[in-house]
Amino acid sequence: MAIMQLDHVNFSYPNSAKRVLSNVTYDFEEGTFYAIVGSSGAGKTT
């Protein structure tokens, strides 16, 4: 069972037409470890 669900999520920074997330759908399952990884300045804290 999903404890959190993303459903068709889109994101763009203010004053920008370019989407950095486009139509993201994902189920986060209980008891599973998730990590957001990427290079410095890649936007992980967004």
What characterizes the major β-sheet?
A: 2 strands, antiparallel
Total helical segments: 0
Radius of gyration: 13 Å
User: Biggest sheet: strands side by side, in what order?
Assistant: 1-2
Alpha-beta classification: mainly beta
* H/E element sequence: EE
Helix content: under 10%
Key structural traits:
mainly beta
What does this structure look like?
This protein has 46 residues and is mostly beta strands. It has one domain (1-46). The protein is built from no helices and two strands. It has strands spanning 2-12, 19-29. The protein has a two-stranded antiparallel sheet. The protein is flat and about 35 Å long. The N and C termini lie far apart (26 Å). The relative contact order is 0.31.
Provide a quick synopsis of the model:
With 46 residues, the chain is an all-beta fold. Helix content is 0%, strand content 48%. The chain contains no helices and two strands.
Draw up the topology in text.
Elements: E1 2-12, E2 19-29
Antiparallel strand pairs: 1-2
